[in-house]
Design goal:
The chain has a four-stranded antiparallel β-sheet with strand order 3-4-5-6. Strands 1-2 form a two-stranded antiparallel ribbon. The chain has a single domain, classed as Folate-binding superfamily (Folate-binding fold, 2-Layer Sandwich), CATH 3.30.2270.10. The chain is mainly β and 87 residues long. The protein starts with a strand and ends with a helix.
Length: 87
């Protein structure tokens, strides 16, 4: 799979480390019960189809990227610098 890094150009996906979904998940209150913390730490939506993921380009420019990818076909639909998404 090839990933078009906005800074380095098209690169092999082995240069990147995917670290999970790019959606914001609300952190429970420190006093929340065990069930709320278990859900926060272990349960994420893992739908088949388009998703937004946070990837790190460790073997390249060391940038954090938001990669839009189809989890069924592994097609990369778009790549954006995470700092541009966070604004």
């Amino acid at each position: 799979m090839r990933v078009a890094c906005p800074l380095c150009g098209e690169r092999d996906s082995r240069e990147f480390t995917p670290v999970g979904g790019a959606e914001l998940v609300a952190r429970p209150d420190p006093e929340a019960g065990a069930e709320a913390w278990d859900d926060y730490l272990h349960n994420r939506v893992n739908a088949c189809g388009p998703s937004r993921e946070l990837w790190y380009h460790g073997a390249g420019c060391a940038s954090w990227l938001v990669v839009e990818r189809d989890t069924a076909s592994h097609e990369v639909l778009g790549v954006t610098l995470a700092r541009e998404v966070a604004r």
